Please model this.
Amino acid sequence: MKSLLVILSFFYVSGLFAQSVSPQVIATAGNYSENGGISLSWTLGEPVIETAVSTDVTLTQGFQQPDYTLVVIEHTPAANLDVNVFPNPTSGNLNIQWTGSIQTPAVINLYDMDGKQILIDQVTTGEKTGILNLSQYANAQYILKIVAKDINFSKEYRIVKE
Model:
């Protein structure tokens, strides 16, 4: 009797540490819709995953995605300095073009979408174009943050590496 009580209490305590099940998709068909807030969700076989991005809309096809990743892009302008980053999407080299005559130290940081810093580079601003080689990184989306602390300038970009 004592051993039965110990075994039952073990299963009871084990249940307290059970893992939670994340949303799953097992489908040969699917459905979901809304109207006013516009929502559409459909699943069939989902053999392909693809994401299309424009300036204000992201459309992801394949594997139902229950969570959103919110990326806030900041910009703190400076009076005589700006920066343009192109081409985006890129397959290798990313051009960083400074506009304005201010020459001040700046830091370029590259982060993956999990927020892990994967590159840091010190540069000097001014009327010139620098090249950032992304060819060694995986095809994915990254956040490029450029900061010039001396003049309180910062700008962030979402970079797509193809």
